[in-house]
Amino acid sequence: xxxxxxxxxxxxxxxxxxxxxxxxxxxxxxxxxxxxxxxxxxxxxxxxxxxxxxxxxxxxxxxxxxxxxxxxxxxxxxxxxxxxxxxxxxxxxxxxxxxxxxxxxxxxxxxxxxxxxxxxxxxxxxxxxxxxxxxxxxxxxxxxxxxxxxxxxxxxxxxxxxxxxxxxxxxxxxxxxxxxxxxxxxxxxxxxxxxxxxxxxxxxxxxxxxxxxxxxxxxxxxxxxxxxxxxxxxxxxxxxxxxxxxxxxxxxxxxxxxxxxxxxxxxxxxxxxxxxxxxxxxx
Length: 283
Known about the structure:
This protein is α/β, with parallel strands linked by helices.
């Protein structure tokens, strides 16, 4: 465009909310303009990217959004803490057919954000607006929560695409005034895994949280690369994060050990394997 200066900016955005509210479907609709109503729980974090052009007066910005689809299960606290690091924007997602998911945003996800120091531009969306007959609340309740955050609320439908593009574009516009961009890849923040796991009798979900976090940190790679490997290995052993079993957890740690053999050497890989097996036996 003649007379318009173009710059490139990259921003990290996290989608937060309980499991099955439609975070993954919203991202898929925005990035690929497709929809799949098959629910698959997200293990850890999955990162998608989309670039949009935002023009204002005599300047145009090519904004690349790094969109982090964050696990909705609360027992995975260490993975959540890793995902929050470096976020510059957030979408809080609830399910219009389950009012408890709206209350969860207020009672858990907002508190979690602030405890992690995440005070960034954010918006609240009530997803599954197409299911009109099954709604338990509406835009008034969404806006009430958004007002507490100094933000805006919207009703969306990943199935029909209603307001999905608009929400991401509006958040993108707000992000352009928040300062410098983040690097394309970020290292996994160090977490004292054993210390966090030692408080009380752990659940299997918390043990899996520790195993995956320990694997990502030990690989010495960025969050996206290491988490993608962990997600791939979990899929290979048919691990269901909503209903994990010790058998599947054991299968996962054996798979991760085989990956670590090449990266860390046999002695370290075997040490980690035994440590993780002991964690599972404690459940």
